[in-house]
Design a protein that fits this description.
Elements: E1 2-6, E2 12-15, E3 18-20, E4 26-32, E5 37-43, H1 50-55, E6 61-63
Antiparallel strand pairs: 1-2, 2-4, 3-6, 4-5
Length: 77
Amino acid sequence: MISQGTNKAGDIVFSPTTLTGRAQPFYVFYFNPDTKNIRRVRIHGVADTEEFWSRYGLTDVCRASFSPQHADSIASL
């Protein structure tokens, strides 16, 4: 895990630097220093097929990079 910086709400964002194994969910953590609350968000469905891994020549470990400022809301779904 590494801190990717802060988002617009002031939360410190922690995320993995690598994704191991195919079709494995992973977590991103948001820590609010004012309230001392931590939120854990489960991410799944990213690069989760053998076809994806084969097409892009990925091996057992994939490096990951996250942008703390980008977030889509699913509230409208």
